[in-house]
Design goal:
3-stranded antiparallel β-sheet, about 375 residues, about 15% strand, 13 helices, about 60% helix
Length: about 375
Amino acid sequence: MLSAILLQAEGALNDSIAKTAVKIAALPDSLSQMTPGKLQHDLKTFHWDTLVQNVTNQCINLAFRILAAVVVFYLGKFIIGKLHHIVRAILLHRDVDKSLSSFLLSFMKITLLFVLIISVIGILGIETSSFIAIFASAGVAVGMALSGTLQNFAGGVLILLIKPYKVGDYIVFGEYKGYVKEIQIFHTILTTYSNEKIIIPNGGLSTGTINNFSAEKYHRLEWHVSIAYGDDVKRARQVVLDILHADRRILKDFLPDEIAAIETVQPKTETDSEKNTSFWKSIFNHHKVKQKVDDIKQLGQQQLAAKIPKKDCTPYVAVDSLGDSAVVLVVRAWTTTENYWSVLYDTYECIYERLPQEGLHFPYPQMDVYLKKN
């Protein structure tokens, strides 16, 4: 029984070897037929013209693809530039906030350039779907590496939503100060008084402490004036107050906006015909109901504003300290933000000119030395 099984297995193996040998012999390029004569015959009968034609066609096709990609790239850049100018003109015409305009224009330009690059890659024959997949997967790793940049992007969005400052405001952020020139996607650009350009990441600006000098309409100024010991303090106070009251740019009592807020508006009196109007007719009179609601809202806002403490902007002069060689007066006054610097420097000049004319003196540091003879 065992010998029969072995004989059957040996026969099957011989049949398999025979079939494999037949298949190898049937191959046209088998090793059995690769003789020098066969190789020489194949080289003589090879269609070299077809090979040259195929290579030439591929080169021409590649050249046309490269040319088309270059044309599309520069044409796309031209179109993006035109769109940038058109959108900018539309935003300026509609008086859109400059901060939002610069942010939108920068974001639009970067997005269109990315789409243009993807299109150029597709024209070159590279599979864009696989490229986008690779770019997306790589973007995750790059995004983790560039977490600070993404934080700057999020900071720019927060700045546009919260609006702690806008284009044209004078701000101070740490050691940097200047006028806001642009709010871009990742950075905010400042220009200083000496026309220096400062670029600050939006991430720090959105989470840091910002001093915005342009946010309020009015500001308080403060001067320190020194007079000599022995001079009349009351006289000096009156001279400085006269200088402040003579300047029309300086406020004399309360802020104008707060004065307007506490002014009461007389409620609208109804005529006899309006009083005789039926209740249901007055309910369905939309304009009349809306007017009453607006009057109630305005009266409530005025009553609320009247309860808020008001800033007394009356010019103020008092003795601040007694120095080693001078009596120091502190001078305070209020003016509009746009007149802040001019009033500050002009008042210093007026005080310097007027006090000596009134018999008051600016002291100099001095030391008395006494010599004792033994």
